[in-house]
TrEMBL record:
Designated name of the protein: Nucleoside diphosphate kinase
SUPFAM superfamilies: Nucleoside diphosphate kinase, NDK (SSF54919)
Transmembrane residue ranges: none
Active-site residues, as the UniProt record annotates them: H117 (pros-phosphohistidine intermediate)
Organism for this UniProt entry: Rhodococcus oryzae
InterPro entries given in the database record: NDK-like_dom, NDK-like_dom_sf, Nucleoside_diP_kinase, Nucleoside_diP_kinase_AS
Cofactor(s) this protein requires: Mg(2+)
Domain of life where this protein originates: Bacteria
Length: 139
């Protein structure tokens, strides 16, 4: 079943010049990039994106990080795109959770600055696509 998912290459990924590396892994996996934009998130957008984490101890630092510089937002499409990208990304903590071969395990060390975001469900994907690419919102 074809799905779509919202992916961010976070500001650390752009600063470390991993945009090509990460998009290359996406394409090698067989996912299609159907929207792609570089932008800098303001606090309002970052807060909406990470609304589920409001109140967590790491939330203020996360918002500061995500708004700290340009990032790349993308919509990927393909069979099981949500799970497929999360497999490519690896677990949240690049050392404790991400498996070798994943983007985070291979290229990151830090539990916050972990290079990428990928939607975790169909509902999250549709909510996040509507935030980052309002012109692609459905319903
Ligand atoms: P995910 O990005 O793997 O889906 P989430 O639990 O949704 O993980 O957390 C969102 C983001 O918040 C993470 O990717 C990471 O950047 C940051 N984060 C999560 N947990 C921590 C933490 O314990 N310390 C610092 N940052 C965290």
């Amino acid at each position: 079943m074809t799905e779509r998912t919202l992916v961010l290459i976070k500001p650390d990924g752009v600063a470390r010049r991993f945009v090509g590396e990460i998009l290359s892994r996406v394409e090698r996996k067989g996912l299609s990039i159907t929207a792609l934009e570089m932008k800098t998130a303001d606090e309002a957008l970052a807060g909406q994106h990470y609304a589920e984490h409001l109140g967590r101890p790491f939330y203020p630092g996360l918002i500061e990080f995500i708004t700290s510089g340009p990032l790349v937002a993308a919509v990927l499409e393909g069979p099981r795109a949500i799970a497929a990208f999360r497999q490519l990304a690896g677990g949240t903590d690049p050392v404790e959770k991400a498996v070798p071969g994943s983007i985070r395990a291979d290229l990151a060390l830090d539990g916050q600055q972990n290079l990428v975001h990928g939607s975790d469900s169909v509902e999250s994907a549709e909510r996040e696509i509507a935030l980052w690419f309002p012109e692609l919102a459905r319903g």
